[in-house]
Structures are given as structure tokens and as C-alpha cells.
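new request in #modeling-help
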Amino acid sequence: MNKTITLFLFVSFALLFAKAPEEGQYPLSEIKKLDLQKAGLLINQDYIYNPNGVSLIDALVKVNGCTGSFVSKDGLIITNHHCAFAGVNAASTPEHNYLEDGFLAESREQEINAKGYKVKITESYKDVTDIILKAVIGIESLEERTKIISKKMEQLGENASDKKNSIEASVSEMFAGQSYILFKYRIIEDVRLVYVPPRTIGEFGGERDNWMWPRHTGDFTFMRAYVAPDGSSAEYSKDNIPYNPKKYLEVNPNGVNEGDFVFILGYPGRTYRNQPSQFIEYQYNYQLPYISEIYEWTIKLIEAKTKENEKMALAYSTHIKRLSNTMKNYKGKIQGLRNTGLVKTKINEESEIARFIKTSPVLNDNYKNLFNEIDEAYSRRMDIAEANLWFKVLYKLSNDFKLAHFVIQNAEEKRKENEDRKFKFKDENIAKSLQKFDSIFKISMESIEKEFLTKMICDARKFSENSRIDVIDNIFDNDANKSLIMRFVENNFISQKITNRENFDKLSELSLDELKELKNPLIRFALELNEQYKKIESENNKISGALSELLPQFNEVKREWKDTQFIPDANGTLRLTYGYIKGYSPRDAVYSSPITSLKGVIEKSYLGNEYAIPKKIKELYKAKDFGQFYNPKLKSIPVGLLYNMDTTGGNSGSPILDAKGRLIGVNFDRAYEATINDFAWNDAYSRSIGVDIRYVLWITQKLGGANYLLEEMGVDIK
Ligand code: ASP
């Protein structure tokens, strides 16, 4: 081979390897093992995470189910518009509709309490695997094992919590049945809205663009954390003062370019990559189609019923948004699984592992029954899948049954000693659990409930043998039609008006025996459902118990076969991921470049509806009033960023950081093809989406008129 070619190949290979990011949502404990400088980081790794001092991770917060970061010394937080959505929704009325119009606090006094929000800061972590696993030595019953493990996790968390000093602790399972970490979090309970762009910016493109690239959504919001004057955590009070974080992020108003190294710190929710093929089959055949279909049906129902009722439409906004988000994500996953053939790939991989096991007598001794046992556990799960999912949906989406089930469970739990009760029914937690129903008492619509329950009953009547819902089978014979079922629902369930607070409160005071004596047909039906649900829960616990023994073995032998270490699946704990601003080819003959611009916002705006934008944006665009955020290469303001980092739900609101650890964007979504990231990451299709800091700053300054926020973040206004 000629020398130049050799050199060229060598350089290409070196580049390929230097540039290829590894799959991974690295836990704190793994960060020091990475060579981020080689990948493009220009600062010391200690600057990102330093257990003995202050580092970037101290600027990170968990905002309910999302991530956010401090961007000023006065507790200013940047996160996503969709993360703050419920708080904005709760503060909005048809007269002051902050969701539609946006919100700006001109001064600190005007900042609004974001009801239901709290933020958490990771303070420290400790491996507690030994303590947890010691508790199950010699325990044969699989159901018992699952229970003991979760009890022990709960106990260790409670013991390490220190309410007086605003510390909440909890144990997270890293590898199922194998490793456990105790995390301590500082809790801040007073969180306020500072600047929220109008929905036409924060949710630009609506559901049509959700989970899609190219994207032009200004999905950001500013909030602020407050504490009591003595620095302790306190609920909302006028006397509270802004929190001074140990660390806040520096903002880089110049952003980044295509190909640049970037990284994300955040709290990814859940991934399932270390699971066997049967798990994916379960998802593909049951969970994903069932949930996406019933959610889609429910969304249409609610939209139709609230169409003429502005107040109710507003009240249901957050609910609809959440259902739509999951629905589209699941449809993306179905498509992704179909296109990638992931189940098949996993099955092939497992056959290879099975062959590998046979090559060694020791392995054979240890693992010869492994795959059969996993198969058996999953076939039991699949047998009851329809009923299992049906119950989950019923208790989640039916207000009547959510409340009735709570009343019954509470009565059951009250019979136990406080310390043996399920978490939400303990004396110290019950008030908070009840508070969660406040919104139901305000917004429940009977016409929605009636149709929803009719559909649930009709659906259940088509389930297979192992998933029959007994009480439904006992009541309805074969020729019961939809209108008869609807009448039944109306006369027996809706008529009981359990969503009326007084009625609910009265029922809540009754003991289990008293509930059983009642003539209330809703409670009777719910009691029967509850009996069956308990059996399903117990079966689920047995299956989980079996899997908590089998999966560590599965991962162990897979590790040996692959001769590599894995990263634990995401579990809501702090992680780092890194990669590059990078385009991709989502479909045959299509290539998408990785940065969108204001030009695209304007182009889409002519389509109207979810692409409508504030008039002011068009005026600013026409006047070329781009301030300092104009990018000559793009000939516009950068809006959306695409990158090959490894993210999932929960990473929403995560800061996107440049090679020097400065904020250059806020993560908010993934491309449609990347919804299957949760099952398998791949550089070909795994792309996440963020909003560019230049668009954030431009909107905040020019549309929001909030120069003071730029100043607070140390951005010089030119
Ligand atoms: N938008 C997403 C969410 O629902 C973020 C993601 O999953 O990537 O949280």
C-alpha cells in the first residue's frame, strides 16, 4: 500500500475512534474512568465531577421528573417549557392564561409559585449493595425476596434522610438484584416561575413536531429556587429568599457548531438495555400497542368533550400533553422495533450466549437452565399481560376507580402497623397522597368518565382466557352491548359521584368492613376488582422476584461472553453522556443536518395552527433584529440542535455543555427513530434534540423583554 494511503487510512481510523462516542449514560462513579479529553473536552475532568470539592454537578437539579440547572448565583434555573408546563397550567386561568400568552416576572416579587414543584440536588452517594443483599440471604420465596429488597431500600433511605437539614435520601437499584446505591439529595420546596415564553414558542410545532427532527421549538423556561431566610428548605412563603447554589453554569452566548464536542449532565429516567429479548417482545406485543391505542382514544375523547369549554380544556391541558407525549413515543418505539428487528437481534445474541455457555463445563453448571427459566418467567408475564395493563390504565385514567381503589387500599393498609404500610398510606405521607387528588375534585368531567369506563369494560370482554376480568364476566353475559354497558356505568358508577370531595371524604373514613357493608355499587365493583388485582400484583412480584435472581446471572454471563463491562440502565440518578453535534439519515435517501434556524421557524409559521407564532417574531425577523445571536454561517439565529448523545425521558431540561463546560443549549427531546434508545442505543439512529442557547437568549431578550435575566446570567448585551 502506498504511504499516503496508509497514512490516510490511519488518520481516518484514528478519527473514527476518537470521534465515536460510546453508548452510555455514565453514573458519577464511572466518570473518572472516561477519557473525555481524548473525546474533545478542554477542561479537567475534575471540573465536571469532584467528590472532594465543588464541580459542575453541583449546578444540576432534578425538577420533578425533569432536569434543570442553576444559571445564576441567585438560584435562577433553566429547564424546559414542557417541564414547567404543569406549574404554568396551575397558575393560569382563562383571564390570565400564562400557558398561551407566556409569563414574565418584572421583579422578584412578581415571581409565581410553581405549585407541586420541588427541586433536588445530588449531595452524595454511597454503595449499599452489601447491606441490601445480606437481607435476602437464605430467602427462598421469590415474592418475599422482592418485598424484602424494596423494604430494605426504603428503610435505608428513610434512615439516611435528615428532614431538619433538608436532606432526602433514597436507594437506587443500579443492576437489578445486583447493585444498590444510596443517594442523598438536598430538597428545595419553594420553586417559582420567572420567565415562560408563550406556548407558540415553548411548544412550537405541538404534537405534530414532538419527537421529530427538524425541530424549531423554544422549549425553555426560567424558574427560581427559594429557601427560608436561614437557608433551610421551606414551602412557599413570601419571606423566603433566593437560594445560593454552590455552583452555577457559565452561559456561552456564542454557542457551538456542527461537529463540536458536547456533553450533558442530567437525570435520565429509565432505560431497559440490559434486558433479555422477552422483555422487548413483551413491549412490542403488549405494552406499546395497548397503551398507545388507549391513550390515543382517550385523548380524542377528552378533546371532543372539552372542545366547547375553554375552562375545562385548560384544566385538562397537562393531562392531554402527558398522554400525547407517551402515545407518540410508544408509536415511535413500535416503528423502531419493526425497522431495526431488535427482538430478532437479541434472540440471535442469546443463542450465541447459549452456545458459549456450552463451551465450558463451569459455565454450563452455572447457567444451563438460565434461558429456560427466563422464558418461563416471561411467559407467565405475557399470560396476564392484558389484565395487568388494563388494571394499570384503569387506576391511572379513571377518576372514579382511582379514588375508589385508594379508599379501599387505604382501609386495608390502616389495619397494619404504620411501619408495615405501603409508603403512600403511612401516617406521615397520607396527607400528601390525598393532596394529589385535589385536581380531580376540580376537573373531573362525568361525560368523559362515562365513555371511558364503557370502553374499558367493552375492551376487557375481548381479553384472552388468562386475562379475564372476573367481575366483568360475572355481570355481563355474551350479548350485553355497548349501550347497555354504558347505562350500567352511568347508573352504578357515575351516579355515586365519588369525585365530589365530600362523598370521597366520607368514604375515606370507613373501615374495610364498613366499606364491604355498603350498598354503593361502585365500591362493590371496586372491591371485587381489588381482590383480582391483588392476585395479579402477587404474581407480578413472584415474576419480578424470579427475574431479580435471573437477570444478574444473565448480565454476568453476557459480560463474560462479550468480555466487557456494561453501564447500568438509567434509573433517575445523575448521569453524564457525551457526543457531537451531528446530523443523521433517518430514512432512505434523506439526510438531516444538525442545526435549525429562525428561518425555519418563519417558514413553518405559514402553515398556521401549531406553527402559529407571535406577531412580534415576524416583525423582528423582518427588521433583521437578531442582536448578537446571528450566526453568519447559518445566516440566521440557530434554534434547534441535534446530537448523538445518549438521553432519555428525565433528561428533559438537561444543560448541553460545550468543551469548556459552558451552557450552549437545553436538551428537550429525541428524534422519532431514537425513541427506541430506551431499548438499544445506536449511533445510526440515536439522536437527541435541544434548543440552542442563542435562541433562548434572543427570545428572552427580544420577545420577553427580560434583559435583566441576560444580565443576571452574565451575558453582556451587545
Ligand atoms: N421530550 C422527552 C420527554 O418526554 C425527552 C426524551 O424522552 O428524550 O421527556
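bot summary: The two ends are 55 Å apart (CA to CA).
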